[in-house]
Amino acid sequence: MKKILLSLVVVLCAAQVQSQTLGEFKTKVDNFGTKPKKKSSKKIYINSFNVMVEVYREDIDYKGKREFRGKGRAEATSQAALGLLGVDGELLQQKTDQLYSEFIEDLKAKGFQIMTSDQVKDVDYYRKSVAFKGPMVRESANPGMLEIIPTSFSGFTSEKNAEGKKSQKSGLFPGLNGASKLVRNTNMLSKQLDDAIVIDVNLALTWSETGGSWFAGLGGANAQVKTNLALGEKAVSAPNENGKSKGKEDYYILPNDFVVAQGSGLKKVTWKGYLKKPIGISGVIQDTKVQSYNKGNVATSYDIGNMYKVTSWTSSISENAKFVEVDGEQFSEALYMSGKAFIKDQLNYLFDQYKL
Fold first, then answer.
1. Is the dihedral of CA 137, 140, 145, 149 positive or negative?
2. Burial 83-118 (b: 16+ CB within 10 A, else e)
3. DSSP string covering 263-316, please?
4. Contact at 8 Å (CB) between 193 and 261?
5. pLDDT in tens, 246-274
């Protein structure tokens, strides 16, 4: 998959840019602490600013062998794949840089002071961390995704994440994944920075919807991928690569949130802002669906003598892959427009909480 992904990030001649529209959206904030005090520190440290963009997706379905009195169908595996052509890595980097620089400028315009990585590098919170800087457009450990870091971002992260090996793969209880952002306890980092405000930003631009028809799946393996471009938290699936279970998929929860932490103990300020539902974006990707259906070969039975009946089964795989071309400029603009709308909404909430 890595070679496929890297080949997708190509620069094509710009086609005529068509209009694109953001759908209506609503945000929600979960508060886990108290409200900021009037004399709270107005220093801010940006702990992370991560952007995920989807460029490729696979779906797989498996149906086991079915047999009754020597008749039935063989096992069947169906796979569908859909990717984007025309994605421009340089433009995605530029739009990510624009989002980040405007984010910083908006904070400064309201009187906040931005702390640099040099000012925080010696705190105990980062004792086992390594330096992490932009610019960066790379294949993510989350299958089918590109990871983008702003050019002017400079911070710290785990060695595993710095090497591009950390994913958002969900565990036994994926529903708890949304709380994992707070488990890192950035309030502890804030405490070590004299109660500075610590902010983490995650953006996820995705377009795939996977899973075949339930009705069609009754008769055989049915895989499907279709397009629906949106910004927001998303659970994506990818075929399991260990080969131990046929048709098994792994799931990855891609966050899209704005997390703020300040202080510690009973007076800590902690909240997480997120979209109630993804921001739909129209006019960028042509509505496309790729589907694969496989019933499995019919069983063939024959007698050997008078005592044994042998049923011959043959497994079969049906594959159907497709690529849809997008305008690189238009696609990157969709990232900027949707990301800007979300960040602006979250900043308005922040400014309301910290009225200077």
1. negative
2. bbebbbbebbbbbbbbbbebbbebbeeeebeebebe
3. --GGG-EEEEEEESS-EEEESSS---EEEEEE--PBPEEEEETTTEEEEE---E
4. no
5. 556 688 899 999 999 999 888 899 999 99
